[in-house]
Amino acid sequence: MATIILILLFLSSLPLFYLLTKQKPSNKKLPPGSFGFPVIGQSLSFLRALRANNGHQWLEQKVRKFGPVLKLSLFGRPTIFLAGPAANKLVFGNDAFTPHQLTSFTRIMGRRTMREMVGDDHRQIRAAVGQFLKPEVLKMYVNKIDEEVRYHIKMNWTGHQTVTVMPLIKCLTFDVICSLVFGLDRGHTRQALAKEFVDVIAGMWSIPVNLPFTRFNKSLRASRRARRILSEVIQEKRRKLEHGLCPPHADLITCLLSLSQEGCGNEALTEEEIVDNTIFVMVAGHDTTAILITFMIRQLEKDPAIYARVAQEQEEIAQSKAPGEALTWDDLNKMKYTWRVALETLRMIPPVFWSFRKVLKDVEFNGYLIPEGWQVLRTTSMTQMNAEIFPEPHKFDPTRFENQSSVPPYSFIAFGGGSRICPANEFARIETLTAMYYIVAQFRWKLSGKDDSFSRYPLPSPSEGLPIKLEPKGDM
């Protein structure tokens, strides 16, 4: 296995040597730094740090040595690392930087997602998805999210003495996405899609070797099967729309299908674009929100005072409602402190700790050259864990977000920024608050695992999935 990894790293490093040899002489200087070991660069060291949850310290050490703009080599490509609010503004606001994913991620997800597109193509797809995810539309779906959460709690939490949080919450977020994004009720199609989705996710960050029995190959095959399922769903929804059997905003798929029919001058999206972007929304919404809810549950157990304030807020809402009455948009807007807890969780444990951008043309920043063809690494922690921006950054303090306008621009970037800011942040807010309402108002809990640590690779995950012992408060 070690030999295979070294061979793959050698092959993946060829773009590094190509870019370095073809680079034209320039009066502008490259940032300080080191490309590390031949072939492997700093890739293995970086991955080890992420798995040990030391990624921030690993990057801080390099910034202390070379400064907030530095060069290194990661995953076979020459890389510029940028730190600080000004750097975040540059990356999010400059069209010369476009998102760049690992090959395995792009191959499995699809090449026509709004994350991969640039220019007018990106704007069209983003606007189409944004039509469904804007608050005035999402208001109509609060009841459906409430129904999915209540069913999940009844089937998986109520009557259980212990549960393992992360896998359960991932099941919940998948069911919510199936309901709202695909318009799929519980049944055979949702079950079939869930089965394929597990394998799709498993290979997203795998080594992209398409040989039988590799994780990447298994994930590619699952992706093809999931696409066939979604194609059938799309054809059925297109038929219903044409015959007036469903409204144009019944779910994300019908919204995308009907976009070009509303007289807005929009071009019709291809089926590939609809499939790629529904899979993208499914993957993005599934993991990120599940991570947030899981780590909120973890934090509330560790801090009884914060749990008490969240519980009081949720119980006051519960007492104002009739038995069995669903949450409303107004109820969610009353959960101000709970959402501050969510934002502080995102500050300390963002679902996406790091990401890459590809440089489309030469850019100058702070007197240094960021060359065309290189990649830029950005992380959330360099501002969100910066003591000059957030005093006592390792202290969990939801009051930081009582006045969000006081947070310096491009410092809290858990949802991204600029034209690439996450379009689903309001959807995440609704789903998170609804889940926390039913969990906190019905249960107290204690952590029951032997290992409370977590890894950040590829995404934050408690080492044991966060097992907890439940103590029911009583029926709502």
Automatic annotation (TrEMBL):
<keyword id="KW-0479">Metal-binding</keyword>
<dbReference type="InterPro" id="IPR001128">
    <property type="entry name" value="Cyt_P450"/>
</dbReference>
<keyword id="KW-0732">Signal</keyword>
<dbReference type="GO" id="GO:0004497">
    <property type="term" value="F:monooxygenase activity"/>
</dbReference>
<comment type="similarity">
    <text>Belongs to the cytochrome P450 family.</text>
</comment>
<feature type="binding site" description="axial binding residue">
    <location>
        <position position="422"/>
    </location>
    <ligand>
        <name>heme</name>
    </ligand>
</feature>
<protein>
    <submittedName>
        <fullName>Cytochrome P450 716B1-like</fullName>
    </submittedName>
</protein>
<keyword id="KW-0408">Iron</keyword>
<dbReference type="GO" id="GO:0016705">
    <property type="term" value="F:oxidoreductase activity, acting on paired donors, with incorporation or reduction of molecular oxygen"/>
</dbReference>
<dbReference type="GO" id="GO:0005506">
    <property type="term" value="F:iron ion binding"/>
</dbReference>
<keyword id="KW-0560">Oxidoreductase</keyword>
<dbReference type="GO" id="GO:0016125">
    <property type="term" value="P:sterol metabolic process"/>
</dbReference>
<keyword id="KW-0503">Monooxygenase</keyword>
<dbReference type="Pfam" id="PF00067">
    <property type="entry name" value="p450"/>
</dbReference>
<dbReference type="GO" id="GO:0020037">
    <property type="term" value="F:heme binding"/>
</dbReference>
<feature type="signal peptide">
    <location>
        <begin position="1"/>
        <end position="21"/>
    </location>
</feature>
<dbReference type="InterPro" id="IPR002401">
    <property type="entry name" value="Cyt_P450_E_grp-I"/>
</dbReference>
<dbReference type="InterPro" id="IPR017972">
    <property type="entry name" value="Cyt_P450_CS"/>
</dbReference>
<keyword id="KW-0349">Heme</keyword>
<dbReference type="InterPro" id="IPR036396">
    <property type="entry name" value="Cyt_P450_sf"/>
</dbReference>
